[in-house]
Amino acid sequence: MKTVVAPGSDFEFQIKTFINLSPTQGSFKNTIFGHLIIEELIRELVSDRLKKASVIENSNFSFYQICSIAEGLYGDDIPSWILPAAKKLNKIRNQYAHNLNPDGIDDLLNDFNQFVFKESGLKKKEVKAKKILDEKNKAAEEQRKSNKNKGFWLPPERSILDRSTEEIFHRAVLELAEYIYRCSPKVRQEQKV
User: Fold this and answer.
1) Which of 3, 35, 52, 107 is 20 to 30 Å from 95 by CA-CA measure?
2) Quick one: DSSP state of residue 156?
3) Dihedrals phi, psi of 2, to nearest 5 degrees
4) Angstrom distance (rounded) from CA 173 to CA 56
């Protein structure tokens, strides 16, 4: 995924750190770090629309309140699925923050993943990519069978759709972050130039 960020920005550093965070380290770590990135992006969106941004920067608004303010400020200027997805992520984060062994966390993760993949259009892209990978892997397997014991064997490539819930979750959080980032008036202005 190509992330559109300003070189050297704090956001670029955070995204690179999140990308390098192994998706297989578990959904807990990915949830906490991803939530922080999403919250910062939404606060930035809100600040961009205010005449006195310090009001938000110095506030103690909850994540849910900031999402509601963003919804009021932006309305149809941002894709309608972004803030509901952020609220779903917040629900997952709250489960981890308030329970040692949260019940139903897998259901929440799957719901978030399916929602983001469907609403962002990522699922259509990944289904196409999976078909291509399946064909490529089939051809590689046939070639390997015809060249028994000749050369190295490489494991088949896996589509994101064939990966674990945690890996899919990691990808879904990145997709959400990129969409929110692109909604920023500053980024939109830079993209027009």
Assistant:
1) 3
2) P
3) -90, 120
4) 24
Contact 120, 151 (CB under 8 A): no
Q: Is 148 exposed, middle or buried (0-12, 13-18, 19+ CB in 10 A)?
A: exposed
d(CA 21, CA 16): 9
Instruction: Give me the mean pLDDT over the 68-91 stretch.
Output: 94
Considering the domain boundaries, does residue 152 fall inside one? no
**Percentage of residues of the chain with pLDDT beyond 70:** 72
Domain span holding position 112: 10-121+164-192
Does a structural domain hold residue 52?
yes
Whether the Cβ atoms of residue 23 and residue 169 lie closer than 8 Å to each other: yes
Please report the pLDDT score of residue 3 as a whole number.
36
Q: What is the DSSP letter of 58?
A: T
Of 46, 68, 70, 72, nearest in space to 57 by CA: 46
Total domains, the chain = 1
Scan for tokens 């992520």, then name that residue.
Answer: 89
- d(C-alpha 98, C-alpha 93), whole Å: 9
Tens digit of each residue's pLDDT (9 = 90 or more) over 23-51: 656 778 888 888 988 998 999 899 888 88
Q: Tell me if 11 sits within 8 A of 41, measured CB to CB.
A: yes
